[in-house]
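FAQ
Q: What does a multi-component entry look like?
A: The components come first, one per line:
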Amino acid sequence: MRYLPIHVDTAEQTILIVGGEGAAEAKLRTLVKTDAKLLLIAPEISPEIKRWVEAGRIIWDARDFSESDLDGMRLVYAATEDDPTNSHIANLAGARGLLVNAADQKDACAFITPALVDRSPVIVSIGTEGTSPSLARAVKSEMEQLLPSTLGSLANKINGLRAKVKQSLPDLSIRQTFWADIFDGKDLRSQLRITESELEARVDAKLAAGKAGEKTGEVVLVGAGPGSAELLTIGARQALHAADVIVYDRLVSQDVLDFGRREAEYIYVGKDPHGYSTRQDAINAILNEKAQGGHQVVRLKSGDPLIFGRADEELDALSNAGLRYRIIPGITSAASAAAEIGASLTTRGRNKSVSFITGHDAEGFADHDWKALATRDTRAAIYMGVGASRFIQGRLLLHGADRATPVTVVENASRANQLIVATTLESLADDIKARGIKGPAILLLGYAPREAIAEVTKLGVAI
Ligand code: SAH
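Then the predicted structure of the entire assembly, as tokens:
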């Protein structure tokens, strides 16, 4: 993000606009809606600008720009119809450290102006850092449809209700959860269209219900999926949005964490491969403490929380403490990896089952029924298998598996840095080493990518 979106307070401010025709008019269309005093310098002005001048909204000085016009200004628009003039003004303003915008000259601008969806006081600003104004317009048009014209007055109404809610719920994080629940995003489109009296009734009912029931927290065990935000369920997004504490694992991606509120407390509990049990105890203790404190807690685990996620231990600890919990499943990395290589995990007439196995367990390399896994029809997704790949390969070959069995390794499935390596059982460990695969990765035993290699490479995926 090169350009930082900020909302500048225009009360008691004078904004200088140089120019009186099309470019200036375009800027003024937004500026006239602000609280700023507008000073316009131009020898001539368009009829539209003239109307604003006549209405007293703009003060017009009918002359050419001179440097002293910048005195006392903070925000300047160089919006004449002449590029060199605009650059000149931008340079002068820039030298004084002023925030200046030069019409149609991004490089001369200290700030650029976003497309706006204006439901004051709710403002959505959309910027593309100058890459595509038409894309910004498309996003704007979508937002225009989503946000009803009554949104601004609804926001003012909420503001009016805040004092009442604050009095009933003095604890900030509980109050944040309260408001998050009012707009829980289940059906945003219709929620934003509630009337002010409906809103007030909802707030009152919720406050009354809160008083009636004892406030205890809840832990929601949420599947974060393999990494891409697109693979997050709507339930997971809602839970993240409502959470005031988010306890997350090492493999949870930033894209997913970004669905949480900024004000939430984020607790990283990534496990290092040593000292598992103490760490797990510590995690259980955090969950208990936060939920007991009345917080809405999200326990975020990569993929699906019920697959190789030690969910039982955490759920047992919660049950033992008499705490409420819910589980929201997620897309497990094996499912994502299979989708990325276009391989059906089961195929009629070929494999009636597919095993999800781990390369590691509490004792080290995990042991399995290798004889059964070495048979021709076996299909398996191997989690935590990178470090154990040579061991797995050795065991399978020892038990008679075909050396040519296809194995596809999908590292960082669904993420921007995804790597797919199609290999065979014979070369598995060597290829993992040669390609520098460190994980997280899934080894898909018995599966090759569906497309021809060339086809997949064309999609930008390394094989
Ligand atoms: N609950 C998770 C698994 C946790 S165990 C799930 O359902 O996916 C951790 C292992 O998951 C890693 O060693 C790796 O094998 C796998 N894994 C997690 N995220 C992955 C990703 N984005 N790509 C490939 N494998 C991943």
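Q: Is there any commentary attached?
A: Sometimes. For this entry: The pocket of S-adenosyl-L-homocysteine is lined by residues 226-227, 251, 301-304, 307-309, 332-333, 337, 383-384, 410, 412-415, 439-442 (CB under 6 Å).
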